[in-house]
Design brief:
The protein has 22 helices and no strands. It is mainly alpha-helical.
Length: 378
């Protein structure tokens, strides 16, 4: 209670000083952050639009923008962030280009935190791309174009994504910006893998890792590189090597508390199933780091592993039906599970045919409990 009274007293003092023109912009931002959201937003907007200049004022405005972005994320209001970016454009004219790029990327990150805003993000990136090109802000434009390519890729709109990637690569290679090259080559590898062009996907991944070896790579980017390396390795049926990369990615994502960790964990379990080492799965999901991610995502892979161990196609199909989003919603899992289903079907048919010299396909279909057309085609 005394602390709350002190905060109210401090806030009241700052408001009085503000009216008297005595308080600094930083103090106003600090006071606004203690207010309820309905009052904080207009107070923070007033700080952003304040005519004060100088390094301290710019720093305070930067903090106000960050807090406004957080308020809009809580309110799930992506359009408000779009309006804020439009408000900031005149201010950006008097701010260093690096600061501008930092603030724009911060607000784009905030929009990405709001579910279901992919179309808004694409629209925002397109607008900022045009503005930064007109203002000759090359650094910002390249970063925004990279994000736009990633959004197109996420929406499975491959042609615009690859067009942006090709344009960026020719430009960034001339500048020899290794950090940007790593990110672009990684996107290129993902795009070609999604299009099933594995030679180009592997070549792009090799280029990304080569560029990464020459610089310090942040843990989040290193984890993304390891994840993609594991995905490409799994496509080449090298599940042992793929598992080791997925493990490295999982450890890094987990330490960063990134939600992508559960995806890496699922791929680890997939490798164990595909290499017929299902006995290791219980040990993996029982580790301290994996227990944090217990739930439907992990349960779906355990169900697939149990079906594979029991050589039961019915149980396999049941697991696919029970966990459609967890298993069919991931393109990597979907590809490998389709191959696994074919392998299991072949093994089951071989096991059933072995005792017979001559057998009717209809009888086989009844034994394996599958449609006649499916069995006949196999």
């Amino acid at each position: 209670a005394p602390r709350a009274v002190h905060r109210r007293t401090t806030r009241a003092r700052i408001i009085l000083e503000q009216e008297a023109g005595m308080t600094s912009l930083a103090e106003r931002v600090s006071a606004a952050s203690d207010l309820p959201a309905a009052q904080a937003v207009p107070a923070l907007l007033a700080c952003v639009e304040d005519a004060a200049g100088g390094p301290e004022a710019v720093k305070a405005k930067e903090e106000a923008v960050a807090q406004l972005g957080a308020c809009y994320v809580k309110a799930q209001d992506g359009e408000a962030i779009r309006r804020l970016l439009a408000t900031l454009r005149p201010i950006f004219a008097s701010v260093a280009k690096a600061k501008t790029a930092k603030l724009v990327r911060l607000l784009l990150d905030r929009v990405a935190q709001i579910p279901g805003t992919t179309a808004l993000q694409v629209s925002l990136c397109s607008e900022i791309r045009e503005w930064s090109a007109a203002e000759k802000r090359t650094f910002l434009r390249q970063r925004v174009e990279t994000r736009l390519a990633a959004l197109h890729l996420e929406a499975r709109d491959f042609q615009p994504a690859l067009a942006l990637i090709t344009s960026l690569l020719s430009e960034v290679k001339r500048l020899d910006d290794k950090n940007q090259l790593v990110e672009i080559h990684l996107l290129e590898s993902r795009a070609h893998r999604a299009l099933r062009n594995m030679p180009k996907s592997k070549a792009a991944l090799t280029a990304a890792r080569t560029a990464a070896n020459a610089i310090y790579v942040p843990p989040s980017m290193q984890a993304q590189l390891d994840l993609q390396t594991g995905i490409v390795g799994a496509e080449e049926k090298d599940f042992r090597t793929a598992y080791s990369y997925f493990f490295e990615a999982f450890e890094q994502f987990s330490s960063l508390e990134d939600a992508t960790a559960v995806r890496a964990l699922k791929y680890m379990l997939l490798c164990k199933v595909m290499s017929a080492n299902t006995d290791d799965i219980n040990a993996i999901v029982s580790t301290k780091s994996a227990l944090k991610y217990a739930g439907a995502q992990v349960d779906s892979m355990k169900a697939v592993a149990d079906a594979f161990s029991g050589r039961s196609l019915a149980a396999f199909e049941e697991s696919l039906a029970r966990y459609p989003d967890e298993l069919q919603g991931d393109a990597v899992l979907k590809t490998h599970l389709a191959a696994l289903y074919d392998t299991m079907l072949e093994q089951n048919l071989t096991r059933l045919i072995e005792p017979f010299n001559r057998v009717e396909i209809a009888h086989l279909a009844s034994l394996i409990n599958l449609p006649l057309a499916t069995v006949e085609a196999k």
